[in-house]
Amino acid sequence: MKNERLKAALDASALFEGLSAPERDALLEISRTRWSPRSSLLFSEGETAGGFFLIVSGRVKVFKVSQDGKEQILHIFGVGEIVGEVAVFSGKEFPASAVTLQDSDLLYIPREGFLRLATGRPQILLNMLATLSRRLRTFTVQIERLTLMEVASRLAQVLLEIAGEPRAGREDIADLKVTKGQLANQIGTTPETLSRTLRKMSRRGLIRVNRNRVTLCDREGLKELSLGGGQL
């Protein structure tokens, strides 16, 4: 793995924002690279957390499995994001499992080495607090979706998040980087219900679906639906 790609991933990471070149080099010195093919298990729920991962390329799914074997995706992470940091800083076991969705280049950062590096570097600790706060907010929103919202509202909200803010001169598109089965899992429904909901949204003129590309035709209508104010 080339150093340029590692440095680019570090620069893209909110956790390592503002590091000086010597600090970045020191971080790379204590870490090790890891190539993980698709479907590689990075850690399992209950496993002692000895370190965490920065995604240099690829995507990683974090999930839990219920006693009856049903999988619930908690989050899907991409380039520049970190995986497994919460348990590392509590010094406890991982509360969920993680597996690669694509062939992935990763940087493994051991807990003890990172804590030594972070000591006396308040920027890293402040970045960590901000990262953990964002993660907590993400899970709070996810719990709200799964417990309080109808499937159509959950889906509309997720499509708006994926698409991001509209840009002048560009199509308003949610580019799904996961399978529809994985998307259904994320919003707590079945693939069949997801497909029916997408068809209803299309018939209402809210979206246009072309495989894994969803064009947002009526952003305001989707916003209303995401807030529970619209019906399909």
Question: Helix and strand layout, with pairings?
Answer:
Layout: H1 3-12, H2 21-30, E1 32-36, E2 41-43, E3 51-57, E4 60-65, E5 71-77, E6 82-83, H3 85-90, E7 97-100, E8 104-110, H4 111-118, H5 122-148, H6 151-163, E9 173-175, H7 180-186, H8 191-203, E10 207-210, E11 213-216, H9 219-226
Antiparallel strand pairs: 1-8, 2-7, 3-6, 3-8, 4-5, 4-7, 9-11, 10-11
Helix coverage percent of residues?
Answer: 40-55%
Question: How large a portion of the residues is in β-strands, by DSSP E?
Answer: 15-25%
Number of alpha- plus pi-helical segments: 9
Mean pLDDT: 86
Structural class: alpha+beta
Shape: globular
Radius of gyration: 19 Å
Count of domains: 2
* Uncertain ranges: none
Number of E-type strands: 11
Give helix and strand order, one letter per element, not per position: HHEEEEEEHEEHHHEHHEEH
What's the story with the biggest beta sheet?
A: 4 strands, antiparallel
**Strand order across the biggest sheet?**
1-8-3-6
Question: What is the CATH architecture assignment of the largest domain?
Answer: Sandwich
Straight-line N-to-C gap: 48 Å
Under CATH, the topology of the largest domain can be stated as Jelly Rolls
